Request: fold
Amino acid sequence: MHPVTKTLLILGGALIVIGLLWPLIGRWIGRLPGDIAVERPGFRFYFPIVTCIVISAAGSLIMYLIQLFRK
Reply:
């Protein structure tokens, strides 16, 4: 199987799994302490900075583990 095909199948499967688990994951992701939320009359601003950092760290760890076991 071509490497690009294999990668796309794995990414597609991962997206399906995340989509099915989203109702459970959505309760915690996006509402972490440290996320910036400003609400005023007629204005709402939300920036999930800590959520972005956690997702980035998890993604980096997963990519590191994949690299580690490929060798």
Observations:
- The first helix runs from residue 3 to 25.
- The longest strand covers residues 36-40.
